[in-house]
């Protein structure tokens, strides 16, 4: 089972032409720092793993076609510390990372990752709510 940290994750999208950009904001609602693995928080815009669940109208998972980089386990310096009452934001283009062209619209998306705590004592599930993308031409 996963621990659920006191973090709010909001997800919005910017749709321009054929491009879909996911805008993620995480806010620490707890009283202690939350340590998020850097691979789960691509502040540099470089995605190295699947960060979103994408489902079509039939409940079928939309295939992730982005990079699958083999990474070593996270060390103590591979975390972003999110302080209490602070937030962090990132945006990343996802239309080129998922096989949207094979999905039956409308498609819904959520940010969803398993985060290894910095002391490796537990796994944390960090998720947003589902967001339905409008049908695209």
Q: Counting H and I runs of at least 4 residues, what is the number of helices?
A: 0
Q: Quote the CATH topology.
A: Immunoglobulin-like
Q: From the alpha carbons, calculate the radius of gyration and give it in angstroms.
A: 15 Å
Strand-residue proportion: 35-45%
Give the beta-strand count: 9
Structural class: mainly beta
The CATH architecture classification is Sandwich
Percentage of residues in helical conformation? under 10%
What are the main properties of this structure?
137 residues; mainly beta; Immunoglobulin-like; 4-stranded antiparallel sheet; 3-stranded antiparallel sheet; 9 strands; 40% strand; globular
What does this structure look like?
The chain is built from no helices and 9 strands. The chain has one domain: Immunoglobulin-like, CATH 2.60.40.2970. It is mainly beta and 137 residues long.
């Amino acid at each position: 089972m996963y621990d659920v940290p006191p973090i709010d994750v909001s997800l919005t999208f910017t749709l321009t032409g054929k491009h879909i950009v996911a805008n993620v904001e995480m806010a620490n609602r707890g009283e202690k720092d939350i340590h998020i693995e850097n691979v789960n928080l691509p502040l540099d815009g470089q995605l190295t793993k699947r960060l979103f669940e994408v489902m079509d109208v039939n409940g079928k998972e939309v295939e992730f076609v982005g990079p699958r980089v083999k990474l070593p386990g996270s060390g103590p310096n591979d975390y972003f510390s999110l302080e209490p009452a602070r937030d962090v934001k990132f945006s990343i283009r996802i239309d080129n990372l998922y096989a949207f062209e094979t999905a039956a619209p409308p498609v819904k998306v959520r940010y969803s990752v398993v985060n290894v705590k910095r002391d490796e004592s537990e796994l944390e599930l960090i998720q947003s709510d589902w967001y339905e993308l409008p049908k695209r031409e």
